[in-house]
Amino acid sequence: MKKYFYYTSLLLLFVSCSKELSFETQTFTAKSSLPCTDDCPEIKITIPVAKGPDVMADSINTKTLNTIKEIVYFGEKPYNVSDYNGLTKAFIGSYDEMKKTYPDETLGWFAHIKADIEHQSDQIINIKVEHETYTGGAHGYHGFRSLLFDANTGKSIKMEDLFTDKNAFLKFAETAFRKKYKIPANQNINSTGLMFEKEQFQLPLNLFYTQQGLLLYYNSYEVASYADGPKEIVFPYESVKNYLKYL
């Protein structure tokens, strides 16, 4: 009987471990079949693919794919594809169409996407997506996207669900932001040349859990011109732990 319980316990432990969430780095690339010299298009996507409990992994992988589809496309809306191979082929296909229409133009398209696990704890998983793309114009675009997931369910965490009191954190963050960027407390948030919507301080679209603390990251164009670049501010976890539901 003791042996039965021993082997049963081992089996349960094995099953439990085999169902733990893990990540496997995968890379997807595509190239054009058209002849090219110095304007050869390229696309490379490197991402952590979730493995483990189906519901959790599917939730994380679907959100990640949909986010990258929002970044890598040409035209009025994202490509209607269901995986990364389809996405890379669609991007190169758009290039091929443009090159056939304008054969004498030097297009030089590219898309470089690299995603990593920025933070993982018992409560939250943070995937950081770094992206750089160019599909014509004066310059390309480089930026970062933050994907936050509940570590126990795999569900995406919305901004309003991240804080115990979002308004209180907003006030706290604005005070620190004004101090860092030397914006007087009695003046409009845009008084030094920033471009906050409705002239009111707002949290960025992307927050990252980093080794240094909670990072508020405003990509280029979000609150400042491309020339002024991104804006950011980091709060040590000790200073913001009372505002956060997840650590």
TrEMBL record:
Top-level taxonomic group: Bacteria
Residues in domain Deacetylase PdaC?
Answer: 37-141
- Listed InterPro entries: DUF3298, PdaC, PdaC/RsiV-like_sf
Domain DUF3298 residues, every copy? 160-238
Question: Which Gene3D superfamilies does the record associate with it?
Answer: Fervidobacterium nodosum Rt17-B1 like (3.30.565.40), Heat-shock cognate protein, ATPase (3.90.640.20)
Name of protein: DUF4163 domain-containing protein
Q: What organism does the UniProt record list as the source?
A: Flavobacterium agrisoli
Ranked from the top, the taxonomy reads:
Bacteria, Pseudomonadati, Bacteroidota, Flavobacteriia, Flavobacteriales
